[in-house]
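Quick one, T. Sequence first:
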Amino acid sequence: MKLQYLGDAKDAFKWDYLSFLAENVGARSLHYISMLAPEEEKKQGNVSPCSFPALNNETTKACVCWQQMRRANEKKMIDDFYKGLRRLLRHHGCDFLHVHKLIGGIADTADIAQAKGQLVFVDPDTGFEPKTAGKEHVRYADIETIWPFGNDTNDTIVVVFQNAKRLKGGFGTHYKEIRKKLDSKCRGSHSTALSWNQVMFVAIAKSSARIEMVREIHADYKRRVECGAKRKIITLHPDKN
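Structure tokens:
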């Protein structure tokens, strides 16, 4: 994530969705694997979080605070962001936030793989690797290291951020490409996805029952948010698209 987007409308969508997902899958902890990238010269990321109809007012309040901190360029901005995120997650029953860094691959995945029933959010600058991985991507090989794919009893859910701003063919086409690569490089995985306003979140799990639960949560989230959203929420599933 580029720091210029901290607290904007897409960030409000991100944390509103993840908080809703954490609460509804009963996740008591979130492993946040982040890559905080420098700002671009383009003046983007200034859309008010209030323009996204978050289901929880706490999400909007937190994003307004984060956007103000970014504009003021506060020195403790990142620390205060994590503190605010912990408070927001606790509001949804997720008591623990573990922060990891994504720099040239995911580090320290052993402690993630050991525990079950967790929610893992991978937040690269751009998303999944295309033909070759750059520093702004997450590699499919990294996803596979998060949990042992030979053990289908692990109900940990991994969510990966994907920016679709430069992609051709729409979310449906791109998600199918991601799904094919997951099938070949992360065998035994199941997935579903949710998108809004050029941002997509791909949820991956070993358990097919777990992903079916996420799919139902996505449908519920879409129904609730679209009552006040100007742009549609799109849900994607390999069996239905």
